[in-house]
Amino acid sequence: MATEIPKEVKNRLKKLKETIERHRRLYHTEDKPEISDEAYDSLIKELEKIESDYPDLKSADSPTERIGGEPLKEFVKVKHQVKQWSYDDAFDFEELKKWDEKVRNFIRKEGLGKEKVEYCCELKIDGLKVVLTYKDGKLVRGATRGDGDVGEDVTNNIKTIDSIPLELKEKVSVIVVGEAWVGKKDLEKINKERKKQGEDLYANTRNLAAGAIRQLDPKMARARKLNSFIYDIDLISIKKPDTQDAEISLIKKLGFNINPNHQVFSDLEGVEKYYQSWAKKKDQLDYGLDGIVIKINSNKIQQALGYTAKSPRWGVAYKFQAEQVTTVVEDIVLQVGRTGVLTPVAHLRPTVVAGSTVSRATLHNEDEIRRLDVRIGDTVVLQKAGDVIPDIVSVMKELRTGKEKVFNFPKYVQACGGDGKIERIPGQAAWRCVNKNSFEQQKRKFYHFVSKKAFDISDMGPKVSDVLLETNLISEYADIFTLKKGDLLSLPRFAEKSVDNLLSAIEKARTVTLSRLLTGISIPQVGEETARDLSKHFKKIEKLQNASFTELENLSGVGPIIAKSTVNFFSSKENKKMLKNLLGQVKVKQDEVATSGNLSGKKFVLTGTLEKMSRDEAKEMIRQSGGEVSGSVSKETDYVLVGENPGSKYEKAQQLGIAVLSEKEFLALF
What we know:
This protein is of the alpha+beta class. The chain has five domains: 7-66, Helix Hairpins; 77-319, DNA ligase/mRNA capping enzyme (D-amino Acid Aminotransferase, Chain A, domain 1, 2-Layer Sandwich), CATH 3.30.470; 324-415, CATH 2.40.50.140; 439-589, 5' to 3' exonuclease, C-terminal subdomain (DNA polymerase, domain 1, Orthogonal Bundle); 603-668, BRCT domain (Rossmann fold). Helix 1 packs antiparallel against helix 2 (37-53) and helix 17 packs across helix 18. The longest helix has 22 residues, at 7-28.
């Protein structure tokens, strides 16, 4: 007997087919796509799932019928004979044109205006960069990129890659650069085995390739079935070709594996077509792609253009759009923050985006919900911005059934405690709890108070804080410093050693700098950098408590919003009592400010991920040498320290002509 098909499934299938057909037409026929390839593919996958679950629903006209398919200490460090650069990024055609304009201006300045400008386009393989050194035709070293100057010697693992020759077809001495990668099919097989063994899965092919290259046992590296594409010659004992295109041909002639999909264009329109072409068909390849690399084809022009502190001027990485998928909003709930602000969070049907499973996405505030017109039950396009933060970018309204529910902020939220009343903050899009002392807020305040940026009580994580709050051993910050061993040993799962560690960490935190104190007590709008600015100016908590709005407003880095928030905070009877009790338990010292040093008077801004240190450690190094750290780039900024995946601060620094430092150049200052 055939299983009865639910009406809602039939309706969903009908809507999906209509929507997919519409977007297929927009994409292929009218050349006016409204959603990304990834979002389109996500809709197809959902339709396939329904047809698989209910085979009777599949028909010949189904859209599914159209488917086509840091250097590690364990390794010896090696200094690169030629520095390994990273390319600047472009994310759309307008940014690509800006790069091209800079290149052409530089060419004119160098008197090379008569030189023919061509663009050699290559696929940007999502693997791990390797540097191979051959002497008289024989492989003598394989290394990782590392920090660009120093890499890891992984020669034994490189030798397990069959596509990398141990001996070249000609007896030349050469240093070549390429990408080691693992196929998607091999990733699936390996992850299946790891899942059976209860081991963590590799997020993507690059993750697997990097892990394979860094295996201490070459046998393990071989088992990962690494492959390679070589694309650059850094040094060679014979005459280097005149163009990048000819260079790739020589690389192939020497016996290396090259990617066959490179192409030369005489204009940016050709480059754009190449980019769009591979953006559409990248998922058909077994190796991962995250964009294309564009290089000026002439080596003469390349040499004239040279490099910035971080990147070659003659090349740019043109990145594909951030990965997008479609999913369904199953609910919208309000999350209470430590200052009582309510953040609407979309609970999603779990989906994989950018290599990880996502089931939550912030909707930021009421205005954002209204702008998107997102409703409970909607199908939405989800994007992982910068591969970190899940973000709903649009709603697929054509998939609505009429059963979707508009979300309205309620009058009461239980997590706010008391009567649960909430209110919209005047002049802002945010809502907050009227009651400032709900248990949920208390928990988040304590998590923040003991965090590394504040009092740094390392053994008092969220689970420990929750237990102490739930058992009423603590109800305000000062209580932490009155805890006794006997109090803690009576709690479940609190062993003597863990109790001793906790009490030791608490004792260490009794002496705290003014800036950490200000960070820890959760003054609305006052973050780490503002806390340092206030500490530097007032030096004592008592002076700050009595500061006027005008005095605060006129401080650099403060302004009217923070000034008002700070005055209101210290005017509150509850906060006065809280601070009096806390100051009775801790000793507040002035922040150590270096009055002299090689960075005295210099202002820094940091952006991106650093390899050898955390950003907090870098900030402390700057301050200890007399420098200042700011959260935003301005004309007063002296240096911008740039790590991996920098944000808009890097772009603004370039626009203002501010000096940009790589991590290596930054460390050289010390």
